[in-house]
Design brief:
The protein has 318 residues and is mostly helical. It is built from 17 helices and no strands.
Length: 318
């Protein structure tokens, strides 16, 4: 999963062509136009394209010298002091841009690595949850795209889907992997997982910024206000959590557990339709129905799961 910005920045071949295109423009602008603002603007653009094209400082040192040389208005009477000054300032500018790019990619990678580590921690305790979280992430992203949400929001919703049940790390394995139906007391324990998950990752600033904390904490809230853990109602529930509630319920109903078989397709759709405006946001359900009508992969999911779940012995309920 990559944002549009990440994909754009990674297309270095585009910036190399733009860098080459800007070289003659920069040269002729310095030779025939006595406009410092224009020259400075073009210089900044070509340095940016250079930094986006070549991410190594050693290459930037060479390209900066070349750019400084092109900026000289008169080669025959070149002022070496000014040339080296322009070279130095060009290199510092390019190096600063490269450093910002590296910081952006490192932070992005750190966040993704953290999410994957947390997801694997949950996977190690409950194999079902790994399949469930991946499915919820996929469905939630499809719903978000159907609702025309920004690509970055869709990306965050995908990551939130992977982590929405992370609080189950704090649930005893005897309850989490119980092969029969849960007692009321055990179900109350399970209902604590949104709060446990929130408290586990609430100090990660990026999760708060991206809305992942909202998805972890509120994905079991109901549209009519009878959900848990806080009993939020309607639009007071963050949109990401409302999307995840539909995806979560759909995957739970279409999944097989040791103590019950998976529901048939018609029953699942009827259940979603019946609980519009009570358990689920009706607009989210309608968007998901549109996805289901169009996506043949989801439509064939039941038959694929029979094989998958027969290979695994224990799954949890919520």
């Amino acid at each position: 999963m990559k944002s549009r910005l990440s994909l754009l920045i990674e297309k270095t071949y585009i910036y190399r062509w733009l860098f080459l295109l800007m070289i003659p423009i920069y040269f002729y602008a310095n030779q025939f136009f006595d406009n410092r603002d224009l020259s400075f603007g073009i210089n900044l653009i070509i340095l940016t394209f250079s930094a986006l094209s070549f991410r190594k400082l050693s290459i930037q040192a060479i390209s900066s010298g070349f750019i400084a040389l092109l900026g000289e208005p008169n080669f025959s009477h070149m002022n070496l002091h000014m040339f080296f000054f322009h070279w130095f300032t060009s290199f510092v500018t390019a190096a600063f841009i490269v450093t910002l790019l590296e910081k952006y990619f490192n932070e992005k990678k750190s966040t993704i690595d953290l999410i994957n580590s947390l997801a694997k921690s949950l996977d190690s305790r409950d194999e079902y949850t790994a399949f469930h979280s991946q499915n919820v992430a996929d469905y939630s992203k499809k719903i978000a795209l159907e609702m025309k949400l920004p690509r970055r929001v869709c990306e965050n919703i995908y990551y939130g889907g992977l982590l929405h049940d992370i609080g189950k790390i704090g649930i005893p394995e005897a309850v989490l992997n119980k092969p029969s139906a849960l007692t009321d007391q055990e179900y109350d324990q399970i209902k604590q997982h949104p709060v446990i998950g929130f408290n586990l990752v609430k100090h990660i600033h990026r999760f708060k910024q991206s809305g992942i904390l909202n998805m972890i904490q509120y994905h079991h809230e109901r549209f009519d206000g009878t959900g848990y853990p806080h009993g939020l109602k309607g639009n007071a529930i963050p949109l990401e959590a409302r999307i995840m509630a539909v995806a979560d319920a759909f995957d739970a109903m279409t999944s097989r557990r040791n103590y019950r078989t998976q529901a048939d397709w018609t029953s699942v759709l009827d259940e979603l339709q019946q609980h519009k405006s009570t358990q689920f946001d009706p607009y989210v359900v309608d968007a998901f129905f549109n996805v289901l009508e169009r996506d043949s992969k989801i439509s064939s999911l039941q038959s694929k799961r029979r094989t998958i779940y027969n290979l695994n012995s224990t799954y949890s309920l919520n």
